[in-house]
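From the methods appendix. Each design record in this collection lists the tokenized structure first, followed by the designed amino acid sequence. Records were kept in a plain field format so they could be parsed without special tools. The example shown here is representative of the layout used throughout.

RECORD:
FOLD TOKENS (272 positions):
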């Protein structure tokens, strides 16, 4: 009897998969998240590409081509940082996290499912954005080592965004204030990190500020994947700065992880 019970007990992997299914279903049922994560970035890509897409910012590189990797990077940040922080804050306010914490589900399985959900959604989002770029603006897919660069930049960027999103969720006093706090942060980073504007045309002091945060490096890493090698000379310092990109993103992964572990709470701030 004991052996049968032990063998039928759920494993960590099975609980993580079950929780991932729940996370994906909740995401698909949320119209606000679907619009924000999928349709809004695609709309911006089509809008900016249609209005400014034909303008050349360097020989053989149009604004639409430059805008695509920035939107890919921004999409990763939005999914892992902004959307995740807001969804966790809402779950905390509604005591969903409190109830989950009272179940046999291990915390590590819960967070693993959250991370997996972000990765799945980010992959779908990137595929959609790149498809629009290829079909409408003649964007070029990476080849050879470009795919390896894309992989490590994507994974490090997703890890940094996700850990920072979990950490930020605990810093929000309540979900209602979340949008007012997080949205200005994301917009500031988008305008100063080479997403909506060409990075080298931004005032130098803002470049230095943006270089502290992960989005600038995530966007630059994606430009190295989707733009021709000739554009490297037009970047700051005339280089893609891959080693610096890996170092800065790794530092932010560690910072986000430490903050998430030290600050995460399962209950509301006013719940004693």
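DESIGN:
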């Amino acid at each position: 009897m004991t052996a049968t019970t032990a063998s039928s007990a759920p494993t960590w992997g099975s609980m993580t998969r079950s929780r991932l299914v729940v996370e994906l279903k909740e995401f698909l049922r949320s119209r606000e998240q679907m619009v924000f994560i999928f349709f809004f970035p695609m709309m911006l890509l089509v809008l900016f590409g249609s209005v400014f897409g034909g303008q050349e910012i360097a020989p053989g590189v149009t604004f639409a081509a430059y805008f695509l990797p920035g939107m890919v990077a921004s999409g990763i940040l939005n999914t892992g940082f902004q959307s995740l922080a807001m969804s966790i804050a809402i779950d905390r306010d509604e005591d969903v996290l409190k109830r989950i914490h009272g179940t046999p589900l291990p915390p590590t399985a819960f967070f693993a499912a959250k991370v997996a959900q972000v990765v799945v959604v980010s992959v779908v989002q990137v595929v959609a954005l790149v498809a629009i770029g290829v079909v409408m603006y003649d964007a070029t897919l990476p080849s050879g080592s470009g795919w390896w660069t894309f992989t490590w930049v994507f994974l490090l960027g997703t890890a940094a965004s996700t850990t920072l999103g979990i950490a930020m969720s605990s810093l929000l006093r309540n979900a209602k204030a979340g949008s007012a706090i997080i949205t200005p942060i994301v917009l500031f980073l988008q305008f100063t990190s080479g997403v909506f504007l060409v990075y080298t045309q931004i005032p130098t002091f803002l470049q230095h500020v943006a270089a502290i945060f992960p989005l600038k490096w995530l966007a630059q890493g994606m430009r190295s994947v989707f733009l021709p090698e000739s554009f490297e000379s037009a970047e700051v310092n005339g280089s893609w700065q891959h080693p610096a990109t890996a170092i800065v993103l790794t530092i932010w992964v560690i910072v986000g992880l430490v903050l998430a572990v030290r600050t995460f709470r399962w209950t509301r701030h006013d719940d004693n």
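APPENDIX NOTE: The chain has one domain: 12-263.
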